[in-house]
Amino acid sequence: MHILSSEQFTPEMLGDIFNAADEFRKQVEDDTARRELAGRYTGEILANIFYAPSTRTRLSFDFAAQRLGMGVLGTEDAEQFSSAAKGETLEDSIRVIDEYGPAVIVIRHKQTGAADRAARVSSAPIFNAGDGSGEHPTQALLDAYTIRREKGRLDSLNVVFGGDLARGRTARSLTKLLAQFEGNRITFISTPELAMGSDVKLYIEKRGLPFSETDDLETGLAGADVIYWTRLQKERPIDGSTGVADSEEEPEQDPRFILGRRALELMPEDAIIMHPLPRVNEIEPSVDNDKRAVYFRQAGNGMYVRMALIDMVLRGAL
Ligand code: NCD
C-alpha cells in the first residue's frame, strides 16, 4: 500500500494507527522493550530519498525505521547528488531503487504529484513525505494524532489554519483529514494571495465541513480549539488553484500574522497552538513557554506515528 494522500485514511484506520503509535511510545520508553523492538525488522531496508530539504520528516523516518530494527539509507539531496542532476527521470531512479528490494521508499520532492508518479513504477510501498504544494499525508497523521492526544478528540473542533495556506501542504492534508469527522469547523486566516487552494475548499465543501476565510486575527482566533500556523514557504511552487499563481511578486511576511503576546490574548485558554515546523519568524519565541504551545511535542509525535505506519504497511494491516 502506498501512502500518497490524506484522502486515503478513514477514522477507523486513524484509530488503529494512533493506538499502534501509543503502543510504540510505551515500548520506546521502556529499556527492555526498546531493545527487543530493535530486532523486529532486521534485514529490511527503508530508502529515504529526499529531493528537497527536510529535518524532521527525514530524521523521524530514519529514527522510526531504526527503532524497528530496519536498515536505512538514502540521500538527503537527491536533486544535487543523484542522477537527477544528470537528467534522469524520477521514474527511472525509483525503478532502480525498487530493484534493490527496499521494504519502503520514502520520497520528498519539489514537484506536486511526484509521489504519485513514483508509486506508478514502484513495487515497494511509496510514502509521500511532501510533494511540492500538494500533500504531506504522514504529517497530517501526526498532526491528527497530536490533536487527539492534546484535545482528546478529532470531532466537534474549531480549527484555525493561518499563514501561507496556498503552499502549506501540511495544512492542505490535515484540512482534508478533518472532513472525516463530525462537527468540525475550519477558519482559514491569510491574505487573499495566500488563501487555501480552491481544490481543498471544494473537497471539504462536498463533505460538509464548514469553513470561513478571514484576514483578521481577532475574529479568526476567538473560539479556536486548535490554532495551526505555517511559515511563508517561498521555495515552493504555486499551483494554479490559488491566487498567488497570478501575482508576480513573492509576498512578504505580513506582520499581522506573527503570533506573539497579542495573539495569545485573543486565543481561548484551552486552545492549542500547532505548527509543522520549521518556524521562521511567524511565531515569536516567547510563545514557546505558553502552555498552549504544543509544536515541539507535535514534532516528537512524528516518530511514533511513522513507526506505526511502517509496521502496519509491512504487516499488511492497512
Ligand atoms: C513542512 C513541510 O515540509 O511541508 N515541514 C514538515 O515536514 N514538518 C512545513 C514547512 O516546510 O513549512
What's this model, at a glance?
The protein contains twelve helices and nine strands.
Low-confidence stretches: none
How many β-strands, per DSSP?
9
Strand portion: 5-15%
Strand order of the largest sheet: 7-6-5-8-9
* Biggest beta-sheet profile: 5 strands, parallel
Number of helices: 12
> Topology as H/E string?
HHEHEHHEHEHEHEHEHEHEH
Mean pLDDT: 95
Q: Which structural class best describes the helix and strand composition? A: alpha/beta
3D shape: globular
Helix content: 25-40%
Give the CA-CA distance, first to last residue: 7 Å
* Unique bound compounds: N-carbamoyl-L-aspartate
Rg to the nearest angstrom? 19 Å
Overview of this protein structure:
With 318 residues, the chain is an alpha/beta fold. The chain has helices at 11-29, 31-37, 56-67, 78-81, 90-99, 114-121, 137-151, 169-178, 198-206, 217-221, 261-266, 295-315, and strands spanning 45-50, 71-75, 104-109, 126-131, 158-162, 185-189, 211-214, 226-229, 272-274. The strands form two sheets. It has a five-stranded parallel beta sheet. Strand 3, helix 6 and strand 4 form a beta-alpha-beta unit. Helix 1 packs across helix 2 (31-37). The longest helix is centred in the last third of the chain and has 21 residues, at 295-315. The N and C termini lie close together (7 Å). 47% of the residues are buried. The structure holds N-carbamoyl-L-aspartate. N-carbamoyl-L-aspartate binds at residues 56-57, 130, 136, 139, 169-170, 231, 233, 276-278.
